[in-house]
């Protein structure tokens, strides 16, 4: 029997109940991960926990490490609430709750649609959290953690939540056909969206981004009939009940967090992409990708911007860099991407950053060669582009040997 359950059933000694041992609970949170290990080896494994976590992160298993940390965190947080939970359990044993239906979290369909779109579908996790909170408080099932089942593991506990809702609907003789269909589609779309998102992150391939958006929108549309069933059920329990009108602090916080994520999305996504650019390509391949972009795309675009169209430069580069380009094409073919796609592999702004830096360098060089920094930049750049076009092979070889 679990130690906490034993404490709940202990009789009072001298008028005082046994208290929950929080430090032992936290220690056991780690101990359970090594269940079955001989006692003489336990301390060795226990001491190695930070090392194991580090190895999980370095070997490409951050999901497992994050899940482990989440479980430990939830158990430790639960330890701080244990005394209050145990007291409520004792009150429940003394005064058993009446078998009364539990109303679910009720909000308007407009509110669900608005918040789901604004928070990029994070509102569905908030709804799951509030409904698990209703289960915990309404049926006095204090072992349930709404935060764990709603936020951290919402994709896992959505099925048990729907089953509880269906059972409550059946109890009041309400038809569940629409609810069943929408719940099934909601779960299928959730799994599909999770799979697509995981594929995009692992393969750093954002070609399926539009599909992900469609899946999330369909998921939101399936959420509306589910919420309507909840509102109708609450109306059966209490004809005077109405969906919540006042915005809760959690909803406001969630909307603010979604706005902050949206603002920082571009910067974060580019940093993520650049990190993967360096992680997925060796140094030689990175240089070949960058050179192919600079000489195939950046130079011609910059010169054309200042009024000169390169005539020989592109053909000369293809000839001088032929061997490296063929090698690059073979490497990228193994990753199922083209050279043009590889240019943006480091983020949307990586090509723009390289072009801006190159343009600044060319302006400085052209000013030194054909004028002064205060002279006509456009005129200097046209002269410079004409010069590199006529001396293409010499300039390209010099640039590549830097």
3D architecture notes:
The protein is mostly helical. It contains 20 helices and no strands. It has helices spanning 3-9, 22-31, 39-47, 49-58, 62-80, 82-94, 109-118, 123-139, 146-152, 154-171, 177-203, 209-237, 249-280, 283-305, 313-320, 322-334, 339-343, 350-370, 377-390, 392-400. Helix 14 (283-305) crosses helix 16, helix 14 (283-305) packs across helix 18 and helix 15 crosses helix 20. The chain is elongated, with a radius of gyration of 31 Å. The model has no long low-confidence stretch (mean pLDDT 78).
Summed up, what is this model?
By secondary structure, the protein is an all-alpha fold. The chain has helices at 3-9, 22-31, 39-47, 49-58, 62-80, 82-94, 109-118, 123-139, 146-152, 154-171, 177-203, 209-237, 249-280, 283-305, 313-320, 322-334, 339-343, 350-370, 377-390, 392-400.
Along the chain, the helix and strand elements come as HHHHHHHHHHHHHHHHHHHH
Distance between the termini: 71 Å
Low-confidence stretches are: none
Give me the Rg, rounded.
31 Å
Please report which band the strand proportion falls in: under 5%, 5-15%, 15-25%, 25-35%, 35-45% or over 45%: under 5%
- Characterize the main sheet: none
Count every helix, treating DSSP H or I runs of 4 or more residues as helices.
20
Query: What is the global morphology?
Result: elongated
Topology of helices and strands:
Blueprint: H1 3-9, H2 22-31, H3 39-47, H4 49-58, H5 62-80, H6 82-94, H7 109-118, H8 123-139, H9 146-152, H10 154-171, H11 177-203, H12 209-237, H13 249-280, H14 283-305, H15 313-320, H16 322-334, H17 339-343, H18 350-370, H19 377-390, H20 392-400
Helix pairs in contact: 1-6, 2-5, 7-12, 8-9, 9-10, 10-11, 11-12, 14-16, 14-18, 15-20, 18-19
